[in-house]
Amino acid sequence: MSYAAPDDPAAARGISRRAQSDIYRAGISGSTPRVPIDPVALENAARKALSAEAFAYIAGGAGAERTVAANRAAFERRQVWPRPLRDVSVRDLSTDLLGIHRPTPLLLAPLGVMEMAHPEADLAVARAAASLGIPYTLSNQASFPMEEVRDAAPHGARFFQLYWSASDELNASLLRRAEASGCQAIVVTLDTHLLGWRTRDLDLAYLPFTRGLGIAQYTSDPVFQQLVRERVRRGADASAPPPPPPVRVTPRTIRAGISIARKGAAITGSGGLRENLRSPLPRAAVETFLDVFSTPALTWEDLAKAREWTTLPIVLKGIVHPDDAGRALDAGADGVWVSNHGGRQIDQSVPTLDALPGVVERIGGRVPVVFDSGVRGGADIAIALSLGATAVALGRPYAYGLAIAGEEGVGEVIRNVLAELDITLGLSGHTAVSQLGPDALRRA
Ligand code: FNR
C-alpha cells in the first residue's frame, strides 16, 4: 500500500483528501474503517485484538498512570485558533530533520516487543512507514534483528534506538551494525536506566523479556553471543555463583520455557525446538540480557564514547529539563528528543508538552527537537510543532494499528494522523508546517 512517494511533498499534500474521500466513498457501500479513527475506539479495538498481557504492556504506564493522563491533559490546555480566508489550497507538510528534507514532520517512536502485537512486528511497521516516507526509529528491544528490518523495507528511512547497556563492547557493536545496515541516526534513550514501576505488568507478573521476547537485537549480536557463551562456561565452573532458586513448574512455566527455546534459535543456530529446549544457551541469553540491559551508573561523561562508536548523528531521547537540553548541546548531541517514555517511567512526572517550550528555548534552534508522549492525532502534532518541535513521534497508536491489522493497520494510523494534521494546518490558516508558531495557539 503506497500513499505518497517518500520524497514528494506534493503527494503528502494529497493525503488528507484521499484519506477522507476513500473513507466516505467506502461508506456508501456500508463499510466503515477496520482501524478506528477515534483514538479511544482505536485503543479499545486493539485491546480486543491483544492478549491481556500484551495490552497491559503496551497501554500501561508507571504507578497510578498519572503521567500518562498528564501528557494528554497538557494537550487539552492548548487550543488551535481557526483562521479562515487565507487561501490554503496548497499545503506543504515537508520538514528538514537531521540534514534530510522529509515529506512530513512525523516519525515513529521506538516501540519494543512488537511481536506481542503482531507476528510480523517491526517488519510490518518498517514496510508501512517506508511506503509513506515516515522515518522509523527501530527499538533496541525490537523483535527482529535490524538487518532483517532493513531487508523488509530497504528504502525506508530508519533510526536506531540504543539502550546503553552495561557492556560497552555490546554498545559499540550495536552501533556498528546500525551504521552498516543503513540507519540515518542513533537515538540514545536516557530515561530507562532503571525499568519504571509498571503497575499493570507487575500485577500480571509479566515482563516479555523474561520469555525471550524483544531481545532479537541482542541474540543476533556477535558480542552478546560471546557474553552468553562465557556465561554458560562460567555456569559449568564450580566457582560460579549459585543458580537462581528453581521456579515452580506450572503450565505457564512450560509455555515460558518453550517461548525462550523458540527465541533461542537465533543464538543456538538450530531451528529444532527439542535441541533448543535442551541447550543452556537460550535461558543464558535471557539471563545475560537481564544483566546487561541497562546501567544506572551512566553519566554525561560516558556519552562521549558514543562518538567513537559511530559517525551517525546522535539524538538524546528522554530530555525533559531545560538544563539537560543545555547539557545535551554541551555534549555535542545532534538532536534532543523530548519524551517521558509515554508516562511509563515515573508516575506523576512532568508532561512533555509543558516541558517542550523550555527545552526549545534552551536549544535555540541549534539542533532539532523531536517531541513525543501523548500524541494521539494530527491536531496534537500541530500543537507540538507550534510550540517549537521540529518533528513529532507517534507511539502507542501505531502499535494499536499493528495489533488490529498488521502492516495495513500501521499504514492506516499514520495516514489518518497525517490527514488530520494537514486539515488542521489548512483550517488554522497555514500553508506550511514551518509557519506554525506560538501565535497559532491559545492557552485554555
Ligand atoms: C515504548 N517506548 C520505548 N522507547 C524507547 O526508547 N525504546 C523502546 O524500546 C521503547 N519501547 C516501548 C514500548 C511500548 C509498548 C511503548 C508504549 C513505549 C517509548 C516510546 O518510544 C515513546 O516515547 C512513547 O510511546 C510515547 O508516548 P505515547 O505516544 O505512546 O503516549
Describe the structure.
The protein is of the alpha/beta class. It has 2 domains: about 260 residues, Alpha-Beta Barrel (TIM Barrel); about 80 residues, no CATH class. Helix content is about 50%, strand content about 10%. The chain has 20 helices and 12 strands. An 8-stranded parallel β-sheet has the order 4-11-10-9-8-7-6-5. Helix 2 crosses helix 20 and helix 17 crosses helix 18. It is globular and about 80 Å long. The N terminus is likely disordered. It binds ligand FNR. Ligand FNR binds next to helix 4 and helix 20.
Number of strands: 12
If helices are DSSP runs of H or I spanning 4 or more residues, what is the number of helices? 20
Ligand names? ligand FNR
**Terminal-residue CA separation:** 39 Å
Strand order of the largest sheet: 4-11-10-9-8-7-6-5
Described by its quaternary structure, the protein is: single chain
Low-pLDDT stretches are 1-6
Task: Report the sheet-strand fraction.
Answer: 5-15%
Which structural traits does this protein have?
444 residues; alpha/beta; TIM Barrel; eight-stranded parallel beta sheet; two-stranded antiparallel sheet; 20 helices; 12 strands; 10% strand; globular; binds ligand FNR
Provide a short characterization of the protein structure.
This protein has helices at 9-13, 15-28, 39-49, 52-59, 66-76, 121-132, 146-152, 168-180, 199-204, 216-219, 222-236, 251-263, 265-268, 273-278, 281-292, 300-309, 322-330, 352-363, 378-386, 396-427, and strands spanning 78-80, 95-97, 100-102, 106-108, 136-138, 158-163, 185-189, 314-319, 335-338, 369-371, 391-394, 441-443. By secondary structure, it is α/β, with parallel strands linked by helices. It folds into 2 domains: 9-125 and 183-194 and 311-443, Alpha-Beta Barrel (TIM Barrel); 202-239 and 249-292, no CATH class.
